[in-house]
């Protein structure tokens, strides 16, 4: 009888430990999922300091916490730096070719959770305002292997499949890393710039913005600068 009681106690203890381990594991997974839904994704290299578009990905801290001075757009009221990048079909696209239009330059990546929230908004806003002279350029910050042609094609294919899955109805360009420096380093994604018809940056957002804020910035870009 005593032996049976001991066996039962051991079984109960083991079962309790298994249940508790499951609870802890579930909580950990939920915490990690919550982190990945943060307002922005930081790009951090191996040495642990913020970088442009290389290195490990970490969720940014909650924007509601005390983070010191708010982010200041280094390009505010300045001419947008010109760039020429390829789209997914290999066609070269230059920002300067859109002068006379209001342009949204949105830096994003396939692994960026906040970007996935914003992209459907950009699709709808593109449809809504394109007739008024709006163009949206989505610039992918996904890594591209430039030393291995086969892997490079796989990297591009991954982006292409994401674009198709998300029904992105505006031009998507690749290799954001090559233009990161003049655009402020791109330390977090999404980073979005709103450019008026004269080519001047009139607004910018770092991290996940609300749809209302994005639309207000689009209207600001559309109404500013002389069309030519």
TrEMBL record:
A single MF term (Gene Ontology): peroxidase activity
Protein name (record): TlpA family protein disulfide reductase
The keyword NAD appears for this protein: no
Region (Disordered): 47-76
Domain Thioredoxin: 74-223
Source organism (scientific name): Paracidobacterium acidisoli
InterPro entries: AhpC/TSA, Glutathione_peroxidase, Thioredoxin-like_sf, Thioredoxin_CS, Thioredoxin_domain, Thioredoxin_ResA/DsbE_sf
Keyword line: Oxidoreductase, Peroxidase, Redox-active center
Protein family: Belongs to the glutathione peroxidase family.
GO aspect biological process, one term: response to oxidative stress
Presence of keyword rRNA-binding: no
